[in-house]
């Protein structure tokens, strides 16, 4: 049987292991922090305390909106125009006024207004084309004194 020569585990070995371990940890932390900061588009609300004071009001608005029974159908057409139908009990809703804005989900571009024109079958079609990429469409739909707000992600 041959014997292997065992080298002693010295302080230099332990130092090398510790330095390598912490170098990996610090590198991963810096990389993750860089990714987090480069993709964060900003605050959702300016002041979370003030926003919390309106929470019950927002719940009441949401319940009132659900009570309307409106349901939007939002489709991005082949020509990159938004096709919008607001339905009530399976039928297109007539006499609606729509206000819409298109924004990048990470806030990389300022929001732009989207204008709709009526088409056949109660469909509303946007005048503007949606640029390639991922976008968020915020809609405010009014009919008489009723109002509903919707948000859709477009790609």
In short:
The chain crosses the membrane at residues 12-32. The chain is of the alpha+beta class. The chain is built from 3 helices and 9 strands, in the order αααβββββββββ.
Describe the 3D structure.
32% of the residues lie in helices and 35% in strands. The mean pLDDT is 90. The chain is an alpha+beta fold and 155 residues long. The chain has a domain at 69-154: Domain of unknown function DUF4426 (Immunoglobulin-like, Sandwich). The longest helix has 29 residues, at 11-39. A hairpin with a 2-residue loop joins strand 2 and strand 3 (91-92). The chain crosses the membrane at residues 12-32. Keywords: Membrane, Transmembrane, Transmembrane helix. InterPro entries: FixH, FixH_proteobacterial.
Write the layout of secondary structure elements.
Elements: H1 11-39, H2 48-53, H3 55-68, E1 70-76, E2 81-88, E3 91-92, E4 97-103, E5 112-114, E6 116-118, E7 124-129, E8 135-143, E9 146-154
Transmembrane segments: 12-32
Pfam family, one: FixH
InterPro entries: FixH, FixH_proteobacterial
* N- and C-termini, Cα separation: 69 Å
Q: In the CATH hierarchy, what is the architecture of the domain at 69-154 at level 2?
A: Sandwich
User: Biggest sheet, in brief?
Assistant: 5 strands, antiparallel
CATH superfamily of the domain at 69-154: Domain of unknown function DUF4426
What proportion strand?
25-35%
Q: Give the low-pLDDT segments.
A: none
CATH class division of the domain at 69-154: Mainly Beta
CA radius of gyration is 27 Å
Compute the average pLDDT: 90
The name CATH uses for the topology of the domain at 69-154 is Immunoglobulin-like
Number of helices: 3
Residues in helices, as a percent range: 25-40%
């Amino acid at each position: 049987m041959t014997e292997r020569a065992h080298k002693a585990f010295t302080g230099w070995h332990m130092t090398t292991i510790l330095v390598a371990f912490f170098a990996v940890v610090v590198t991963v932390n810096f990389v993750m922090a860089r990714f987090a900061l480069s993709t964060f588009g900003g605050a959702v609300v300016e002041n979370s305390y003030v926003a919390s004071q309106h929470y019950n009001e927002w719940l009441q608005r949401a319940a009132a909106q659900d009570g309307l029974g409106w349901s939007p159908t939002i489709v991005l057409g082949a020509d990159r125009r938004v096709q919008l139908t607001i339905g009530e009990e399976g039928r297109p809703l007539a006499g609606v006024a729509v206000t819409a804005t298109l924004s990048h989900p990470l806030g990389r571009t300022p929001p732009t207004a989207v204008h709709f024109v009526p088409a056949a079958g109660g469909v509303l079609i946007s005048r503007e084309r949606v640029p390639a990429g991922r976008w968020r469409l915020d809609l405010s739909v009014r009919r008489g004194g009723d109002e509903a707000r919707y948000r859709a992600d477009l790609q």
